[in-house]
Design brief:
Layout lengths: L16 H19 L1 H12 L5 H4 L1 H20 L5 H12 L2 H7 L3 H30 L4 H30 L4 H4 L1 H14 L4 H10 L13 H11 L1 H30 L4 H29 L1 H21 L4 H30 L5 H30 L1 H22 L8
Helix pairs in contact: 1-7, 1-8, 1-10, 2-8, 2-13, 4-7, 4-17, 5-7, 5-10, 6-7, 7-8, 8-14, 8-16, 12-13, 12-17, 13-14, 13-16, 13-17, 13-18, 14-15, 14-16, 15-16, 15-18, 17-18
Length: about 425
């Protein structure tokens, strides 16, 4: 699990526990910042700015998803020119205006613009925390490393969504719920200035890598890796489509669930509970599922997790006559299913990518995964305006089950070598 070099650099979770723990806390701040929007922003669109089109309400998610996806893609290429720590700090500086814009935006256009900045922030900061943790632990513990990283981020998303729901109930939709984001920005930036870069760990793993068949030089660049990860490589293609549909689900629930359950009589605190439970379980659940991905393989968790998510959408509609039960049950099942999928997908991409082009492969995967936010919001907005919120949830269940079938067909497990 560990290795040493003349420089004293070592690979392994235990060997790098202090830096790893610091990066976990940084990703808590990353997740907390995006969690500000989970409960309140769709309702700000309808109640504060008077938007009547669901597609218009979901436009902030489309802006966020497109920007984050493109930033994820660029982040892989940028690691060839800049150190990971530099990109991490840059992401936090870009995110400074976000909580203030959400709290006091004079028009909906400002909310959309804030989500462009938030997408840049999340694309850089979350990408770098993932890459740096993978760099630190080496090949054998990637599932656990990504599980811990995503657990920290998405537990913070859920806890913040839950907190903003209660703050909105007590103090209104703005500005109190959004201003807690200032704490996340300040803490995230300060801690990122302290963390050490991981370039030496990448160099050590590259020196020890025994597979010399993957191309180097121009063929390992962004364009070639994008094509390889998106469609040429069967397993990477399977992971990319599953990631897209997984976040399509998240983008859809982000916009649809607050409107669906308030339409059925639930208040802001109850909606906050539903919106908080989903990412909290998604987050905490990734610690055991990341470990299981290392023990059992990536594919079983990916395929079964997508099918569990599909069942979560079905339950939301079957139980809708009791909206709180429907929301909580759906959130629990969706959270468990997503926890099964998330670390296994990132670990699978890492398994099939040579260290020389792994950052670009992860950037490409994360591009397709996070474009799912935009696709989900766009599909949700169009379908909700045309046929209603219930039919939109049915469509999500069908798409998710289909994605699980494709993952079973395309993805193969490749056992990493320590």
């Amino acid at each position: 699990m560990s290795s040493t070099a003349d420089t004293g650099v070592r690979l392994g979770l235990r060997e790098n526990r202090a830096q790893f723990a610091l990066l976990v806390v940084v990703n808590v701040c990353v997740g907390g910042l995006v969690g500000l929007e989970r409960t309140t922003v769709p309702l700000i669109g309808t109640d504060v700015f008077g938007l009547t089109s669901d597609l218009a309400v979901f436009s902030f998610i489309i802006a966020f998803g497109l920007t984050k996806a493109l930033t994820n893609l660029a982040a892989g290429a940028l690691t060839a020119r800049f150190r990971r720590k530099q990109l991490l700090v840059a992401g936090w500086l870009i995110g400074v205006p976000v909580p203030f814009a959400l709290a006091w935006a004079p028009s909906w256009g400002w909310i959309v613009a804030a989500n462009v900045l938030l997408g840049l922030n999340q694309g850089l900061t979350w990408s770098m925390t993932v890459n740096m943790k993978i760099d630190l632990v080496g090949p054998a513990r990637r599932g656990l490393a990504t599980g811990l990283n995503e657990a920290a981020g998405y537990t913070a998303v859920g806890a913040t969504a839950l907190l903003t729901g209660y703050l909105a109930t007590a103090y209104g939709l703005r500005p109190a719920p959004e201003l807690i984001g200032v704490v996340f920005v300040v803490a995230g930036l300060a801690l990122s200035l302290v963390v050490r870069d991981t370039a030496a760990h990448v160099a050590l793993e590259l020196a020890r890598h025994t597979d010399h068949s993957p191309p180097t030089g121009p063929a390992a660049g962004l364009a070639a890796t994008f094509a390889r990860t998106s469609w040429h490589h069967r397993s990477l293609r399977g992971a990319s489509q599953a990631g897209l549909v997984n976040n399509l689900n998240d983008g859809l629930t982000w916009g649809v669930f607050p409107l669906l359950f308030t339409d059925h009589g639930l208040g802001l605190a109850a909606v906050g509970l539903i919106k908080g439970l989903y990412p909290i379980l998604w987050g905490i659940g990734q610690i055991p599922t990341g470990h299981l991905a290392d023990r059992l393989g990536r594919k079983p968790l990916i395929v079964s997790g997508m099918l569990v998510q599909s069942a979560g959408f079905v339950l939301a509609l079957v139980l809708l006559d009791r909206p709180l039960l429907a929301g909580v049950t759906s959130a629990v099942v969706l959270g468990i299913g997503t926890a099964m999928v998330y670390p296994a997908l990132i670990a699978s991409v890492s398994d099939h990518a040579h260290p020389r082009w792994r950052a670009n492969a992860l950037g490409t995967y994360r591009f397709w995964r996070d474009i799912g936010y935009a696709v989900g919001a766009l599909v949700a907005g169009v379908l909700a305006d045309a046929v209603g919120l219930n039919a939109t949830v049915v469509a999500a269940a069908v798409l998710t089950a289909g994605s699980g079938v494709l993952a079973a067909w395309w993805i193969t497990d490749r056992r990493p070598v320590a």
